[in-house]
Amino acid sequence: MRFAIPIVLMLGVLALLGFGLTHDPREVPSPLIGKPAPAFALPGLGGTPPQLANADLKGRPVLVNFFASWCAGCRVEHPVLMQLAKEGIEIIGIDYKDTDADGAQWLQRHGNPYRVVAADLQGAAGLDWGVYGVPETYVLAADGTILFKQIGPVTEQVWREKMAPLMAGAKS
């Protein structure tokens, strides 16, 4: 009996480690899936119009992409976003915890796939959306409901297997 408690504790720890190793850390379930996008109002990048609010995300399916000039993963996904924009996919960009100058310069250097770019300088909107860190991309239905959250870069595989089917279904 004296050794039973440590053995049971060790087995419990091993079970938790085994469970954790079998799950993808990028697939963190969002409590916002199936719910309307959080209310927000953000200025355009550089403080210029247009101001972006959650009402602007309704009426058609869209991708909402949180990015920043300092984000290495954003560089990885940017060519994919540029291609999606060329294919007519509407992408809304939210420059997260960045300076206006750095965000604008980054888009000028790498290209701008976004229909609208808003600035979340303090990260308050990102907090409401449940952003862990950039890049993060959300698929929204035409009614503004969040259908999917991608943590990390959008790759061609993620787009093809997870996001594109949701966007296609959101159009009907």
Description:
- The protein is of the alpha/beta class and 172 residues long.
- It has a single domain (29-171), classed as 3-Layer(aba) Sandwich (Glutaredoxin), CATH 3.40.30.
- The chain contains five helices and seven strands, in the order αβββαβαβαββα.
- The strands form two sheets. It has a five-stranded mixed β-sheet. Strands 1-2 form a two-stranded antiparallel ribbon.
Structural shape:
elongated
Helical fraction? 25-40%
Mean pLDDT: 88
User: What is the number of independent domains?
Assistant: 1
Relative strand content: 15-25%
Question: What structural class do the secondary elements suggest?
Answer: alpha/beta
Order of helices and strands: HEEEHEHEHEEH
Number of strands: 7
Report low-confidence residues grouped into runs of 5 or more: none
Sheet having the most strands: 5 strands, mixed
| Tally of separate helices | 5
Corresponding CATH architecture: 3-Layer(aba) Sandwich
Output the CATH topology: Glutaredoxin
CATH homologous superfamily (4th level) name: Glutaredoxin
C-alpha-based Rg, rounded? 19 Å
Q: What is the spatial order of strands in the main beta sheet?
A: 5-4-3-6-7
CATH C-level class is: Alpha Beta
